[in-house]
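forwarding from the other thread:

> can someone predict this with guanosine-5'-diphosphate?

sure thing
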Amino acid sequence: MLEIKVVALAGGVGGAKLVDGLSRILPSDSLTVIVNTGDDFDHLGLRICPDLDTVCYMLAGLANLTTGWGRKAETWNALQSLAELGGPAWFRLGDRDLGTHLERTRLLAKGYALSEVTQKFCEVWGIAPHVLPMSDDQIPTMVQSDEGELAFQDYFVKRKCQPRVTGFYFAGIESAQPSPGVQQSLSEAEIVLICPSNPWVSIDPILAVPGIKEVILDRAKRKQVIAVSPIIAGAAVKGPAAKMYLEMGINPSAASVAQHYGSQDMGGLLNGYVFDHLDAGQDQEITGLGLATLVTNTLMKTLEDRMRLAEQVIDFGKKLLDGNV
Ligand code: GDP
């Protein structure tokens, strides 16, 4: 196995798939995953953390790989009886999944931090990598749109991403802090990997937590920052990322994502960029941004895909660390 310190920044679906691949090729002590919590919300009196749960269910082998969210072998009795009573059933919560939210909510109410609850769940589920929420503070992502301001899940699930977005903000981010372990893992990382997650609403919230971007940019220790494009041939594999780019007046492309992370706002965060064969024509544009590139098959349909992409990305990172690209 490869002995190298890797920190992955991840949202839900795309992030979880690559993280699963990484967890299978890296020793457990080598991998830390920092997960977006901007999608978290309170619903039916429960704290729901969609991205954390997607990543953890995937790493625990409990994920529903067809939907990309929720648990496998799920049943829907509670949701059905809720709907029969006229309750809010627009956010689908399966019976097994509900157990997670019930116990998380109970522990949070007792005073445990989200990072402590996550660690406990990971121990029970036998998850080896360190999984850290980006923050223990609540930092809800707000979507600004032609229909006004919407809480993220109202936009994403209730309104099925139909409103046209004009911007985003992360409420309370100024006074938020990274959760324990985030800064240390990033400062010790040799490879920081930005997973193929939605740049606007999965990765930007993580990078916006005060201190996180700064420690990634601190190159006192040798470190390579690599992103994998969530956009393939102008489209998102799943979700609204491409639609968001268009509505923000930007062409959705692999190069646009590279520009996003490489922009001045981000302090020129990236060293390396991984994108799909189908976008090979954009290589010159991307290397023109000063980035080393790896062009490969980035669509992860199977476990083999997830492991192969993880291996290629880590190999690319090692070459960058050795100055061999
Ligand atoms: P969410 O919070 O559940 O929406 O999850 P993410 O932000 O992690 O995932 C959504 C993003 O992942 C979308 O922009 C997809 O295009 C991207 N994505 C999903 N599956 C794949 C894949 O197999 N390959 C790549 N390159 N991107 C993917």
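The CA atoms of residues 118 and 132 lie 7 Å apart. thats all i got for now
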